[in-house]
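User: Earlier you gave me the apo prediction for this protein. Now I'd like the version with zinc ion bound, so I can compare the two side by side. Same sequence as before, with the ligand SMILES added.
Assistant: Got it. Here's the input I'm using:
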Amino acid sequence: MSNVNAYIESQQEQYLQTLFRLLRQPSISAQNIGTAECAEILMDIMTQAGIEPRLLPTDGGPPVVYGELTTASDAPTLLIYGHYDVQPPEPLEAWHSPPFEPTIRDGRIYCRGVGDNKGQLLAHVLAIKALNQVRQMPRINLKFLYEGEEESGSPHLPAFVEKHRDMLKADAMYWADGGMHEAGPRVSFGSRGILYVELNAKGAARDAHSGNRGGVLPNPAWELVHLLDTMRTPDGYCTIEGFYDGVRPPTDYERQLMAAIPHDEASFLAEWELTELPPPVDWSFHERIMFQPTFNICGFVSGYGGQGTKTVIPSRAKVKMDMRLVADQHPDDIWEKFVRYVKAHAPNIQVTRIASLVPSKTSVELPVSQTIIRSVAEIHGREPIVFPTSGGSGPSYLFTGVLGIPTACVPYANHDEDNHAPNENMEVECFVRGIKISARVFRETAALSKEELAAR
Ligand SMILES: [Zn+2]
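And here is the structure of the complex with zinc ion:
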């Protein structure tokens, strides 16, 4: 393996030129700019690496760049996910070099999309190229699913995965996105789900004078406040019947992993200008983020909130809420329970479901999970910090849920990559190391037995 790593280092200049070619093509899904052109460039780069790519249409969105590399029909199969679209670059004046002109300063490549996700998805492709070139391609099959609208919420990905279930069949899904932990390399498994809802209360026909009509017209803001107050106890628990039914507690191993994540509570509190964490007090910091659901008010809008006074009885009130869900909660089940509760306690309030994602869970104890952790440790020369679940929500349930396979994410970028922000960057060292990690993961996964890969 060391000669693969040495070879990868010797090719750094050429790999950077390949990356720059991909970076110079804007591919902003939100603004419908350049995604088709970028997909073509990616196809060409994949072809040169020995992968046979195809453009597969989505139902109205940018195409998926899909590629396969087959070494033996019964070899272990890894599905690789990534996205070639990027966030809009605005505000342009905040960039120190043009957002779509890759520029190296102080060992970092500055360009929109370098970390999120072009530099990381390309690392897998270049790893294949390197392994082929040194004739050390392991006995593994790879399937690449590179979508073009992750930054717009992957609206067509669920239908795509459902439709191509058979084509995407694999033993595990592997991807690289995001930044490492400040304290070192990171590997994460799974993500929280989400249920996003809106509550609307209607009072009188229109807003009214709070003096002339005060006392005879209802106030929908109070109606919402009363409802919300009954939905959560002062010590932080949701009161909706069965809300916590599906919550799977962390295993002993997951507790160990959480305890090993560097965390300084005092500096966290100082950073957020707090003196203590909010209730419930019986969950640890990381357990709250990874293994417990939330019940959050995102916004509350009613009446007048401007300067000075306006004496008014509002006729409408609206609340937006998100609930982050953990395995094995399901947004459909929580939605049913939520609606039942509102109907029973405030039948006049209208409830609307806005969005949802199913939580995704992969056991860190699986042989494939351990193999990926070990590969990262070997390339970095130190143990990575392992996140059993991430606090955010994403489409990884499509792989764990729809395809039924484990998923693991290894962020290759530096922790301060500033993705989504001006001056997005990736250290050259992180990019090159990412190629080495991908090669290592492919080689180590190739050595897993059928039984080890079948473990769930
Ligand atoms: Zn992003």
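For your comparison, keep in mind: DSSP finds 14 helices and 17 strands in the chain.
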